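Amino Acid Chain and Its Fold in Token Form
===========================================
Structure side: the spatial fold of the chain, written down as a series of whole-number tokens.
Position: the record begins directly beneath this header, with no further notes in between.
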Amino acid sequence: MFKKILKSYDYTLLAVVVLLCIFGLVMVYSSSMVMAVQYYGQSSDFFYEKQKTNLMISAFVLIVVALFPYKALMSNKILVPMVFLSIIGLSGLFIIGTVAGNALSWFEVGTRSLQPAEFVKLSVIIYLAAVYAKKQPYINEFNRGVAPPLAYLILVCMLIAVQPDFGTAAIIFLIAATIIFASGMNYKNIFKLGLIGLSILVPIVLLLREKIFSEKRLGRFEAFIDPFGSEHGYQLSNSFISLGMGGLKGLGLGESVQKLGYLPEVHTDFIMAVIAEELGIFGVSFVLLGLGYIVLRGYYIGMKCKDPFGSLLAIGISSMIGIQAFINLAGISGVIPLTGVTLPFISYGGSSLLQMSIAIGVLLNVSMFVKYEEKYKHKAENPVPESAPLYSSGASIGRK
């Protein structure tokens, strides 16, 4: 039985994730080695060593989660503590949290930092997928099947927005929107949800207008409109230079000029700019194809899964990876204003990598159940007669 389960895992998906993580580790070293010495007074491999530790921890967690039956996540014994812990974690930031990047988003744990909002992304996916899967028999009854789960979503988005971290709040909102669209509810209820969302969003914007429309955030819009002419366009203009210098083959691994103090946050938000500069189109294509495969494979798993909970989990996780990757890449290339979002599996960051590893572990488990049921249930339902020869004499199946 255990051997059959192991054979059913999606090893191609796992291999792509592993390759991206290893590639990301190399690029974290390349992009951060100068900054680690000049700005932090550490050895050149400081961030590399920390990310390597993050990667080993995340790999262990991924394996454990991949072996854990995803259907157990529907249990109230898991859902209820998960919801309360996420709310307590976000609320606790206002008491013992640490400011980084102008947002109160971090807990200091020894020499490391933990960002609760990263794990809330996955918490929202699991919660909404479980609740809407259970409510399938009456999914189109607005008061009973549609509205109740949104209280949790609104609360966590508000707690993240007031940190203020509008980028993460927007990502969680968009992830939730994909799960809602995929849940099977009709367009009438989706339209109602949109109106309710606007009625909640407008008062929040008015209440937090000083934080939302602060000089720094308005500066990001100025930089978006005119990066080379705005005094706030330093990051984006240097990102453009870095993206343009690589060409087809790049300057060579470790040869980036922009990482020498011109481009800030090179190992986190702007790591793709360094990849483009050092490895050119080939390096960028490797990352895009890898992330694209993970997202599309996740959607495929969601469509093949007959269990509503597993299907919504796969769609939610794939959407999270796709949305976050798009926001990061669109920000550094000037398609949208910068938001300070990391690139999945590539950027430096323990919380992001650990959360993504848990998500991939869940996705692998859903995929395993889909493949296992398809393969072995089909054999059980269509047994080969004992009298049938080992090899078909005519070998004419499908040729008639």
Observations:
- The first strand starts at residue 98 and ends at 100.
- The chain is about 65% helix and 5% strand.
